[in-house]
Amino acid sequence: MAVAVAVAASSVVATTAPASADSVLEDILKRGKLRVGMSTFVPWAMRDNEGNLIGFEIDVATKLAEDMGVEVEFVPTAWSGIIPALIAKKFDVIVGGMSITPQRNLTVNFTIPYAHSGQTMAANTELAGDFKDLADYNDSAVTLACRRGATPCNLAEKMFPKASIRRFDDDAQAFQEVANGNAHATIASAPKPEFTVEANPDILFMANGGEALSSNDEAFGLRKGDPDALNFFSNWIRVNTTNGWLQETHDYWFKGQTAWKDMVAPDQ
Questions:
Q1: Strands (DSSP E) along 39-162, which ranges?
Q2: Are 36 and 98 part of one and the same domain?
């Protein structure tokens, strides 16, 4: 009887333990380098006047690598293709201000949130200056610009289904489309719209009085099937939330723009 129980118990262990699984953490430590997938958009990640990457995500990923005792390598990737690139193992983790959505979560695993943001809208004064409220943007005569594959495009489709949507590979192109008068407005993660309006007060204004159109939770994106990596990165976020580092760093980039805005290269 005791033998039978022992066999049964060992069978349970054998069926619950993975036969083989990719270990992102082991790969990173063996390589001595954390490869981070990201895409540039202010102030999450951007180029300075010397061409170096700076921004909230850059600081987060750099500290993450330091705490792991490895180097960091940034892998700039078009946002519309960043999840396929993660799955194809072009890098280890997405640290790029990615909002948690159920649709994305079907494909990738998310850590606990490490940042919280909202979407705001910058509009062209000549084209939309007479609009009274958000309902005026939901019209077939209205054109909205947004970043391809990002949350703002999904929000634009949901909130303004009658409007025409033009998608661009990066925020800079979408904002330029509005500044040139080819689109009524663009939606992006705050504070990018606010910064752009501040730099172009004669041609742009904050729609909806500057109030956020939505709120989002941002998390690291990981390939599925690796609970150890998910646990480690989530706990790293938890530790640096509790000790205040994430909030302090977030405040620097999102609330103290006068400290760094002159460092940013043009057209971002």
A1: 46-47, 53-54, 71-76, 93-94, 109-110, 115-124, 143-147
A2: yes
- Structural domain including 188 reads 118-214
- The pTM for the full model equals 0.80
Residue 5 lies in a domain: no
Does 183 reside within a domain?
yes
Please check whether residues 161 and 231 belong to one and the same domain.
no
Strand ranges for the chain from DSSP E: 33-38, 46-47, 53-54, 71-76, 93-94, 109-110, 115-124, 143-147, 164-168, 185-189, 204-206, 214-218, 221-222
Q: Which CATH number does the domain housing residue 250 bear?
A: 3.40.190.10
- Burial environment of residue 130 by CB neighbours within 10 A (0 to 12, 13 to 18, 19 or more): exposed
Residue partners of 260: CB distance under 8 A and separation at least 6: 43, 54, 252, 253
pLDDT of 9 higher than 50: no
Same domain membership, residue 136 and residue 205 = yes
pLDDT at position 256, please? 64
* 3-state DSSP assignment of residue 117: strand
Q: For 135-182, write each residue's pLDDT tens digit.
A: 999 999 999 999 888 889 999 999 999 999 999 988 889 999 999 999
d(CA 190, CA 152): 11
Domain count, the chain: 2
